[in-house]
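Lay summary. Proteins are chains of building blocks that fold into shapes, and those shapes determine what they do. In this project we predict the shape from the chain. Here is one chain we studied, written as its sequence of building blocks.
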Amino acid sequence: MRSPALVAVVLLLGVPAAAQDTPPPGGAPSFHGVLEVLPAHGTIDRATGDGALHLRRWRLLLQPAQNGVGSNGIFPDRERVVIAVGAGGENTFYLAPGSLTARRRGKVFAYRAPRGTLRGIKTIRIVAVSTDLAVGAIYRVDANMVGVILSDLLFTTRPACMPFAVIVGDDDGFSGIQLAERNLDGRRISVANSCSPGNDWPWLGQ
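And here is the predicted shape, written in a compact code that computers can read:
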């Protein structure tokens, strides 16, 4: 099966290690897969630079296991879950192991933050699409994040491509995202498409 995400393996070989020079909580992931980016929407507070992002049906493709080497799968109800937005580390949102609840016989994993949460992952839902490790298991990711620091969008020179990673346990899926605004004075922003922020995977060799 050839999909845009598989083609992205060739194009999205990650970001230089300098972009994420501090591993996320729980240590650097060992198995580097691919994150398929789809159009998404969000908002930004022009006074503070704080934003919200809403991801729908993005796909996490795990590194295929070949000759005993590669991902052994993910277990979102038992492993840490991290969403990292941008290169500075200020938007590394962490959920401790056990935060997500398994449903539908272990095919769906979900989390909802306590009411009043102003920063971090507000909701996340991870759904197993395929668990064939030999070709690379596939999971669908829906997530809502609040309090995302997007101050760079307030300046004339905006980042052309922002690193974005979803990490579950020792697996990650990585891509770059391009944020767009229809109105530079408005609240609405969107993830226009994926992009390539560099020539190496994040945290590689750590």
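What the prediction tells us: The chain is about 5% helix and 45% strand.
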